[in-house]
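re: ur msg from earlier - yeah i can do the coenzyme A complex, just paste it... oh wait u already did. ok heres what im feeding in:
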Amino acid sequence: MASLIPVGVAGLGRYVPEQRLTNRDLEQIVDTSDEWIVQRTGIRERRIVAKDEVTSSLALRAARQALEDAKLAPEDLDLVICATVTGDQPFPATACRVGFDLGAKRAGGFDVAAACSGFVFASQIAAGFVQSGQYRHVLVVGAETLSRILDYEDRNTCVLFGDGAGAALFTPLERAGRGEFLGGSISMEGGAEAVLAQPGGGSRHPSTHATVDQRLHYMKMGGTKVFRFAVRVFAELVQKVVDRHGRDAIGLIVPHQVNQRIIEAAMEQVGLPMDLVFTNIDRYGNTSAASVPIALREAYDAGRLTKGKLVVMPAFGAGMAWGHLLLRW
Ligand SMILES: CC(C)(COP(=O)(O)OP(=O)(O)OC[C@H]1O[C@@H](n2cnc3c(N)ncnc32)[C@H](O)[C@@H]1OP(=O)(O)O)[C@@H](O)C(=O)NCCC(=O)NCCS
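and the outut:
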């Protein structure tokens, strides 16, 4: 077998919509309070798409920034992978629209549906294509418009999520010069549809007037179960990296931005300080597949990615599905 080509991250991008939805705004919509939301989640506001924006239009903005960062043109792309559970429509894949709008004339594309773990899984697929030599320039975009599937009559869910997009461009390491791909993991535990899902609109509950009356086209969630699961798998994922590489090798943990309390509880469990973690949950809430790449680009802009140190990206969500992406910056 031919030896694997070392892979790196040549470019990063992010985009969030202009419109802010604050906790005070939500107080006018459901029975909640700024104090409750901040205490339980750390979220102060989230971004919401305008009427004429869709998932692919957010993805496009993030993708363009990643291309610019990498100094590559759309025609250079071999593959576009879009991680999303709120695509423009059930099919065709949102990646096809993103590729078309970008002008990625040579590229193929497809979507990855793994909810909040989508970017972390798609990045491992992308890196595999580059490692094998099949493709040189693979763009991964995590993009979501969760506001379009949230029930703004359900305070258990509508306060937690927001919209946005983030992107990473994987190329051979010699081209990228940074962000060496060191691997990751992909895990799942099926049969948990009742815990976190959008039940309607698929083959189980095809859309009918009845499914709409039952509000099955909106996200449903059992918050406490998800909380315990997230703390457990987050801690396990980070612990594995510590065991393998040592605590001092870690430069920054950029986790799925799920909930400040979940992040703090997991960090306490593995005995690591919070200053090793990058969070922006206060400004965007949980943006599912977009959360890790938005945070990664912001960590990069803030100078928090240290040359030669590990960047650990644990993610977890509906499925249940979880895993991590590991880079050496
Ligand atoms: C949802 C979550 C914030 C709730 O926090 P919690 O500490 O578990 O909440 P508690 O169980 O102590 O309290 C629940 C109570 O708060 C109420 N509540 C829920 N949302 C509320 C809101 N937005 N405002 C005010 N009260 C709210 C519930 O109705 C419930 O009231 P009850 O006890 O009268 O039935 C928390 O469970 C969580 O973050 N879970 C993970 C969710 C998530 O991130 N999912 C995505 C994973 S990728």
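cool cool. The two ends are 28 Å apart (CA to CA). ping me if u need the other ligands too
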